[in-house]
């Protein structure tokens, strides 16, 4: 098998591993607040929003050390161990206890930083300058298939149910735990790429030189510490570059809307009593439509990236307009108190008679717009920092996760219209700064190519 085909196969395996893992985890995040509201136990006092705020808060802090961890352990083993932690978090819902729920939230935050840093490293060393956009699209499309399969299961399992029983909860979360474990073991199928076939020869400085953890000679403890410290220094240095500072506003926006579509919007739909007995089942159906939008966007915009004829800016602008349309329709269709409604839901009505079709259309638009931003951000980070992909993606996830943590925190308190307003403003500034970062990045690459002639 040629090096290009081997690298493409690695990207596909990476995508399938994440698809299985996040079929479980994203489905868990989509329904956990609804599950917790229906959990009959006076001993449990957890909140799904608070759990997610902890996860993303710890995630953001852990991104500062994640490149060092991946440097020592290797990206392949890092992803496997992180996957086991994700499975443990999902398993907590089989029989929830407050202390284990929040403890698992902290551990998943640490594991998430390591997982996504290792993913960014493997994506880059299995890509070239000409395939990084295509591979980002392929990975993103496979990853977002997780929204389709997991939520399809939720739709059929909970369709017509007004209350989620303990038996319903255990059945769902046992299944999700097994699915997550399958994804973790798939990472062992990733093969070592040709070290000279990646984005650049300098990719050899990205954590383990072979891209996986099966090195024949073990470095000394002093060498590991030096390597870890160097990875940490690179992350701090990259965070202060002009390109990353400009991209930070756009990355922060993806964290805010990640919170909204992965946790808040499903809870809003499930709280709408005017949707009748279908409300709980619509949570799963909403997740499916988000997934369809993500998959469509990842596939189409990945192909656009391959030619790179029009650049990344038009795709990001399309994402902004798509999200603005979704936010406006949600504002008209969903009751203002839906995010913080009690177990029995809300009887309030927004400006329109609540429509299931409009709610699902908004789910699709949320997914499509999200894929516009994320495929282009993955592409521009890999394009701009090919020689330091692991620390670059660690910074990416640091900014994204800290904004998601803030959003999950305020989701406990803010009415729907205020959450939408925050995202409208953040989306505008994020798009503007992305345009500037794209111009700086392309200009620098053009100057570099000119100097090398």
TrEMBL record:
One GO cellular component term noted in the UniProt record for this chain: membrane
Subcellular location: Membrane
Gene3D superfamilies documented for this protein: MFS general substrate transporter like domains
Main location as per UniProt: membrane
Topology class, membrane: Multi-pass membrane protein
Keyword annotations from UniProtKB, A to Z: Glycoprotein, Membrane, Transmembrane, Transmembrane helix
Sequence intervals crossing the membrane: 7-26, 46-65, 77-95, 101-125, 137-158, 170-190, 244-262, 282-304, 316-335, 392-410, 416-437
Source species, domain of life: Eukaryota
One Pfam family it belongs to: UNC-93
Region: Disordered, residue numbers: 200-221
InterPro entries: Ion_channel_UNC-93, MFS_trans_sf, UNC-93-like_regulator
Similarity remark: Belongs to the unc-93 family.
PANTHER family from the UniProt entry: ET TRANSLATION PRODUCT-RELATED (PTHR23294), UNC93-LIKE PROTEIN MFSD11 (PTHR23294:SF0)
The protein's name in its UniProt record: UNC93-like protein MFSD11
Natural source organism: Lepisosteus oculatus
């Amino acid at each position: 098998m040629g090096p290009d085909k081997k690298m493409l196969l690695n990207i596909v395996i990476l995508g399938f591993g994440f698809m299985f893992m996040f079929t479980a985890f994203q489905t868990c995040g989509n329904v956990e607040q609804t599950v917790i509201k229906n959990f009959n136990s006076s001993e449990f006092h957890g909140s799904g929003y608070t759990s997610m705020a902890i996860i993303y808060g710890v995630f953001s802090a852990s991104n500062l050390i994640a490149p060092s961890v991946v440097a020592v352990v290797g990206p392949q083993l890092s992803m496997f161990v992180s996957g086991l932690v994700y499975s443990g978090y999902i398993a907590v819902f089989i029989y929830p206890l407050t202390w284990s729920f929040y403890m698992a939230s902290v551990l998943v935050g640490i594991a998430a930083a390591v997982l996504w840093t290792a993913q960014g490293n493997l994506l880059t060393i299995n890509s070239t300058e000409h395939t990084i956009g295509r591979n980002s699209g392929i990975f993103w499309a496979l990853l977002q298939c997780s929204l389709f399969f997991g939520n399809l299961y939720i739709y059929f399992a909970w369709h017509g149910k007004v209350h989620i029983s303990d038996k319903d909860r255990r059945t769902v979360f046992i299944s999700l735990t097994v699915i997550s474990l399958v994804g973790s073991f798939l990472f062992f199928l990733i093969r070592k790429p040709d070290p000279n076939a990646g984005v650049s020869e300098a990719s050899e400085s990205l954590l383990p030189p072979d891209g996986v953890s099966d090195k024949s000679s073990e470095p000394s403890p002093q060498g590991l510490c030096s390597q870890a410290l160097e990875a940490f220094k690179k992350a701090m240095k990259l965070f202060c570059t002009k390109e990353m500072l400009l991209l930070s506003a756009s990355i922060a926006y993806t964290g805010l809307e990640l919170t909204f579509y992965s946790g808040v919007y499903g809870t809003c739909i499930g709280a709408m009593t005017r949707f009748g007995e279908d409300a709980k089942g619509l949570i799963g159906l909403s997740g499916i439509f988000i997934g369809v939008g993500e998959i469509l966007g990842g596939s189409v915009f990945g192909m656009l990236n391959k030619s790179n004829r029009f650049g990344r800016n038009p795709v990001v602008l399309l994402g902004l307009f798509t999200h603005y349309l979704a936010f406006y329709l949600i504002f008209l269709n969903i009751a203002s108190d839906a995010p913080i409604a009690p177990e029995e839901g809300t009887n309030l009505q927004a400006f329109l008679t609540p429509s299931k079709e409009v709610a699902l259309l908004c789910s699709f638009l949320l997914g499509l717009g999200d894929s516009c931003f994320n495929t282009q951000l993955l592409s521009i980070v890999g394009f701009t920092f090919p020689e330091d992909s692991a620390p670059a993606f660690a910074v990416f996830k640091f900014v994204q996760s800290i904004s998601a943590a803030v959003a999950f925190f305020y989701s406990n308190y803010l009415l729907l219209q205020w959450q939408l307003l925050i995202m409208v403003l953040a989306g505008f500034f994020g798009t503007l700064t992305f345009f500037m970062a794209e111009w700086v990045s392309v200009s620098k690459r053009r100057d570099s190519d000119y100097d090398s002639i």
